[in-house]
Amino acid sequence: MDSPTSSVVTLRINGEKYTLPVDHRTTLLDALRERLDLTGTKKGCDQGQCGACTVLLDGRRTVACLQLAVAAEGREITTIEGVADGERLHPVQQAFLDLDGFQCGYCTPGQICSAIGMIEEHAAGWPSAVTDDVRPEAGPPPLTDDEIRERMSGNLCRCGAYVSIVEAVGRAARARPDEGHEHPEATAKESVA
Length: 193
Prior knowledge:
Helix content is 32%, strand content 14%. The chain is an alpha+beta fold.
């Protein structure tokens, strides 16, 4: 099917390889949902503004509606279907369930994928717009509720489950094996005292 406007690509998704012909204009989102029947990734705004289609591309979060499928060839793609370890849920998934971090659930796959990427970005020391000390030697800032809100701001929830989402992300970040940062609630209480 190779032509000036299409190619055969091999995508590595959730540890498996999928080879398929795609038009060069096909987004990763449409390839996942329409061509591969991986419907956990949701189509929301289709303009990169709501975050419902967030997936991990080489471990970094990206909105699949703005990523072309041909540009994802050779990269590792993780969708919501691939974040659990068999029957054992990823800590972010478990925290969302335990703390009721969803209502209708439409945005939840994108929220979870974004949270997984965000936790890794934070652990690597990446600052956000609300980080006070952005010097590399300062290390990761405390993962306060404000930090979580800012870092997750690209993912919208129509139901308004933000309070539970922030709590779930904080719990999952604290459950990370090498996480040595302050507890978000403790940090907030200490700043008031």
